[in-house]
Amino acid sequence: MTSVSVVVPIHNELKSLAPLVTEVEKALGGRFDYQLLLVDDGSTDGSWDEICKLCAMHEPVLGLALPAHEGKTSALAAGFAKARSEIVVTMDGDLQDRADQIPSLIAKLEEGWDV
Hints:
It is built from four helices and four strands. The protein is α/β, with parallel strands linked by helices. Helix 1 links the parallel strand 1 and strand 2. Helix 1 packs parallel to helix 2.
């Protein structure tokens, strides 16, 4: 089974977190060995508490918290450092990226494409 890590920087995305986890689970669950890394970048809206709840409810979800708002680049770097898979996909936390497109991306990689 192909292994993939999905890294998502989070900054004040409380309302989109549960739907994001659901969408990734729907797209990857049962088809891939995956981890979903939610990197909280100093949110002030309760996002970190929600991430902790989601981690407890969904085994593939891992939460990381930056000590302060450091920006997207720092959040991505923290997620990359914890990613355990050779395939790492990034998504935004606001649901503008579609998780259902990840399997197509992985299929292209398995065909030999370099992304």
